[in-house]
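To illustrate the input format used throughout this study, we show a single complete record. The first block contains the structure-token representation of the backbone; no residue identities are included at this stage. The design step must infer an amino acid for every position from geometry alone.
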């Protein structure tokens, strides 16, 4: 059978998509694939690496800890937020640029744990200097709870169990501590004292989340054993 000739005035321009279809990016907006390929090429050719972003976030959290020691809580909150934002960008940049390495993922996870501990240690020292033993003890529990939240997820995933349950995820902990620093007494945003309340919330939520994840993994492993 001979092919049907194209109708007059309906010739498809060179390079136009067939049948009037438009390619859509993963974000749901139409975007030329050439543009994303060009952006990817520029990222790959640049000297910026995910490890550089991770280390920048680490330095931001170190600066936040120093500012807490200096009682500059508002600036400490800003530094902590900026450092935490960098922590979220390194993973995305790693996937976008294709520069991710196993060591980079290890470094990112390690620095995430260290950064949170550094800032909370400075907060604990502040409460200890004010002879607020209860708040200082809550900081210790918050540090331990934060480490256990991360450890239980990592250990569960090593056993083949997805473990993202619980309230005290990393973003939630960042929001709570940031609010505590920005609205600490003397921070400049009103005469509030939310730092101690933030620490109490962190201690309670991280311990609760740890228990939730332990029970979740127990149920998941028990269910898996019954299916064998």
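Output of the design step:
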């Amino acid at each position: 059978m001979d092919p049907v000739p194209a109708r007059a005035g309906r010739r498809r321009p060179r390079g136009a998509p067939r049948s009037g279809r438009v390619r859509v990016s993963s974000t749901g907006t139409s975007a030329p694939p050439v543009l994303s390929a060009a952006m990817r090429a520029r990222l790959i050719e640049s000297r910026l690496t995910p490890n550089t972003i991770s280390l920048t976030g680490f330095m931001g959290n170190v600066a936040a800890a120093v500012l807490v020691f200096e009682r500059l809580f508002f600036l400490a909150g800003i530094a902590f937020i900026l450092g935490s934002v960098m922590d979220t960008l390194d993973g995305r940049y790693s996937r976008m640029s294709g520069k991710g390495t196993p060591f980079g993922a290890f470094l990112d996870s390690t620095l995430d744990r260290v950064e949170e501990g550094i800032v909370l240690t400075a907060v604990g020292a502040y409460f200890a200097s004010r002879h607020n033993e209860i708040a200082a003890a809550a900081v210790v529990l918050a540090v331990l709870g934060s480490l256990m939240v991360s450890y239980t997820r990592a250990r569960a995933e090593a056993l083949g169990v997805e473990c993202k349950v619980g309230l005290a995820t990393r973003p939630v902990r960042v929001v709570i501590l940031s609010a505590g620093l920005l609205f600490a007494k003397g921070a400049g945003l009103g005469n509030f004292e939310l730092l101690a309340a933030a620490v109490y919330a962190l201690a309670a939520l991280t311990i609760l989340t740890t228990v939730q994840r332990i029970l979740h993994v127990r149920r998941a492993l028990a269910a898996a054993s019954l299916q064998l």
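Structural context for interpreting the output: The domain at 33-227 is CATH 1.20.120.1760 (Four Helix Bundle (Hemerythrin (Met), subunit A)). Residues 195-227 form the longest helix (33 residues).
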